[in-house]
Input
Amino acid sequence: MKPIAMKQYTRTNVYISACIGMMFFGVSFIVMGAVLPAMSAKYGLDEVGSSLLVTFLPVGLLIGSLLFGPIVDRFGYKSLLCISSATIIGGLLGLSFLDDLNLFRIAIFFIGLGGGVLNGATNSLVAEIYDGKQAASRLSLLGMCYGIGALVIPLMLSFFSKRYSYETILIWTSFVIFLSIIYFVSIKFPEPKNKQGFPIKDAIRLIKEPALLTLGFILFFQSGLEGLLNNWSTTYLMNASISHQDALLALTALVLGITLGRLVLGYLITKLNSVHILVGGLILLMAGVSVMNYADTFWLGALALLVVGLGLAGMFPIVIGAIGSMYKEMTGTAISIALFIALNGNSILNYLMGHVSARYTINFFPKFLLLCVGLQIVVIVIGRRYLNNTK
Output
């Protein structure tokens, strides 16, 4: 008898699954910021109570980003995408049906945990099924899907909140995510890299890899910059006499800039040197921050954040693509380590900005951003030879 051939995965179907997963990471990342005002009003939360709730999201993201790599390398992608999506559903339904602040914290942690796993797993999946510049190009389009997901919840709340409660909107979102699980179950994914057992010694060796650490610290500053801009831009613009509503609207220009930038980047990466693209992005980023320093109207603030978003667009796809090309045997674990370093950058730089703001006022915000960009440039110069793996 002839051995039965294993059904091979279809790359297009797998890439679609990664895009769906990344959209739901965008949902999980932005959902608390979108529904927190309504939750605070409903349960009478002050600023301290609200911040205590929100802190459980990044904790979940951090743990999910660290755990996903060894799991996908050992067990594959299908079960992890299904479980992480179900975890987000559990968190969203918890916010919809529960009525206890302690249970809310658990629900928010689940949303972060599932989102962290989806972010890492989808990036790793694309880096595994594509090579070189094609991987970086596809990762750019994948990042665009994050922007779409991040815009969905605020837009839904904006359009439907007068007729429906935020709980109802979260239930709708949970149902759509459930449909995606059915799709994940129905398709074939790449086989696990280490079916016979996870090579712990190789994973420990990765942690000491100069190339991986250098690329991880590029993402340390990148993630920190994105977090700083998401968390502090509205406060800075309001301090410049822009209304709260206009400042929030201007912030959507940041997500729009990243989304548009990654759409264009999907083409540019196949034509230009990766380091040259990053240099162009850094120039745009510094230009946008410089404009922000003088932003005293909505349109100037929105323009500054749009340009900043365009400048931020390329770093993650190019760096993740380089890591995927360099560590094909342990793609998930390598990307997991890099994302863990990146998310720590988000937490640490936001913490430092809090102290800077208290000491020098929020007016120092653009200068702090430029300082972070300067430090990132130093790390990029050190690691530029690794980035050219995406050629």
Observations:
- DSSP finds 15 helices and no strands in the chain.
